[in-house]
Amino acid sequence: MASERIAGFAVWRRGAAADATPAPPASPEAGRFTPPVAADVGLSRSRPVPLGHTVTAGPLELRAFDVRSGRGAVETVLAASPANDPPRDGLTYVIVHLAARNVGDAPVTIAGADFGLTGDSGVIQRFLDVIPPDPALAATLPPGAAADGWVVFAMPTDERGLLLIFDSVSIPGDWADRILALQTAPRSAPPAATPA
Questions:
Q1: CATH 3.40.50.970 fits 2-36+47-181, yes or no
Q2: What is the pTM of this model?
């Protein structure tokens, strides 16, 4: 059963595994969801969800609203914990601040392991063995609850066209998978979903 899988999900941290924690108090940004984009937005690399827009991803609404890379991201990650190491030569950290809201009817666990980062190269980078800045995105959201937090990736310094891939480890199948752009594009916003 899905609820048993969710209840047994653990959030991995450097040196230990711990049960997923209840949602921390949400920042004001976690409550700033835009109307969801149309259902066909976020299903492909050619039509990702624009930065700052909300997408429905299965039982969740997701919104990436802050992205940092380069020197600022490296300094932020290193300041988050003395256990964090600088990125290897040729790489930089990319940190993404996301808001998530459970619009389903059962608890949903969300964490950094639910995301990947890719770019024009097509190579997908996964969550790193680093402690994210506070708040980290790691919570079990009851229906109607929202939380926000950071996820951390390492990417080649010359990678362009960054895209965040949501493919939850606690939601079976690929029906909730979505692709979010991590830079603003000079195109107009995609149409919002229309009420049925």
A1: no
A2: 0.80
